[in-house]
Design brief:
The chain is mainly α and 351 residues long. The chain is 68% helix and 4% strand. It has 10 helices and 3 strands, in the order βββαααααααααα. Strand 2 and strand 3 form a beta hairpin. Helix 2 packs across helix 4 and helix 5 packs across helix 7.
């Protein structure tokens, strides 16, 4: 940003002999013709304020708001993705064909079937993700020897990627059981279409039955598969978002350390982040969906799912559901980051 021409900063001349040795190397600034002196302590406090990390609670709350946005925008296509991933061999259906079929047979309510699980869990999930990202950045900064240098700390893209990967660790505690319930409810709709009976009446009933059948171990089935999806996915997600933001700022002549992007630019960066995330996350997501919806004892683990899937359907099956995932990725994640950035501005008083 350009500074007004009348704001000129010059260093004050050395003080007289009576003040020498006092350690006060004050700075004189001329603003609109008036001299203003500022002490080194003021400069030091400004530097400390610039390097002060954002409030962890603000990251938590703004992430939760972003999560609600991503579910409201992207759930219908997520439902289609899961149904495609868990469909029987030979069953073919296009993304929009399945959307039309679901809407015609079940209405809007059908498009949001199973939404109670992610919507109930999504605020803590995304809140934990953005909080974990904030903690990841603090961890990365802690191990960087150059972080002791004064002024605002600037993270490199590689540091952002590492922090993104770390964010997936606390999130999985909530993500794994939520995904298990969501996938079972979505797949149940396939069985009802074929004339079968509903096993679960809703999210709470599904969770209770899972726990009754196999305890906490059953509820957390697919945890390693969830980690295998979310660690690289989060690395790509946060890394691409920050990379696109920086590049857009350079293109628009904005200082990346102090500038603000337009809403359209934030939506674009968030959309590309979502596409990057699913580009690397879809194969482990397929394995996770199969593992979490399979009857107890069918698979011994993620690798067993992989062996059976490749043997029976080939490697192409690892990319089942990529079309709806990619179509969903841009608008859903654009909404997520836009909602998060708006919340951060609104909660700036918490810093």
């Amino acid at each position: 940003s350009c500074k007004p021409s009348q704001n000129i900063s010059i260093m004050a001349a050395k003080t007289s002999s009576s003040t020498k040795g006092s350690g006060d190397s004050s700075e004189t600034r001329i603003q609109g013709g008036d001299e203003v002196k500022s002490s080194p302590s003021a400069t030091t406090s400004d530097a400390a304020a610039a390097s002060k990390p954002e409030s962890a609670l603000k990251s938590f709350l703004s992430g939760g708001i972003g999560g609600v946005c991503v579910v409201l925008v992207g759930h219908p296509l997520d439902l289609v993705k899961v149904r495609m991933q868990t469909a029987a061999k030979g069953v073919q259906s296009s993304t929009f064909g399945m959307l039309r079929k679901t809407f015609a047979g079940e209405g809007v309510r059908g498009l949001y079937r199973g939404v109670s699980a992610p919507l109930t869990a999504v605020s803590p999930l995304f809140a934990m993700s953005f909080w974990g990202y904030d903690m990841g950045k603090r961890t990365v900064k802690y191990f960087d020897k150059d972080s002791a240098v004064g002024g605002e700390y600037q993270f490199s893209i590689s540091q952002i990627i590492v922090a993104g990967g770390l964010s997936a660790l606390p999130t999985t505690v909530f993500m794994a059981p939520s995904e298990r319930v969501k996938c079972l409810l979505q797949v149940q709709a396939n069985e009802i279409e074929k004339g079968g009976k509903a096993k679960y009446t809703g999210m709470a009933d599904c969770g209770k039955q899972i726990f009754a059948e196999g305890g906490i171990r059953s509820l957390y089935r697919g945890t390693m598969a969830t980690l295998a999806r979310d660690v690289p996915g989060s690395m790509a997600w946060f890394g691409m978002y920050e990379l696109v933001k920086k590049e857009l700022m350079v293109m628009q002549g904005i200082d990346p350390s102090t500038g603000q992007l337009s809403p359209l630019a934030i939506l674009s960066a968030g959309g590309f982040a979502g596409v990057a995330c699913w580009a690397v996350a879809i194969p482990p997501d397929v394995l996770k969906s199969r593992l979490q919806t399979a009857p107890p004892g069918q698979y011994s683990g993620m690798y067993d799912v992989y062996k059976h899937l490749v043997k029976e359907e080939g490697h192409a099956a690892l990319f089942k559901g990529i079309r709806p995932a990619m179509i969903r990725a841009f608008p859903a994640n654009a909404a997520c980051f836009f909602g998060m950035e708006l919340a951060r501005k609104g909660l700036a008083f918490m810093d």
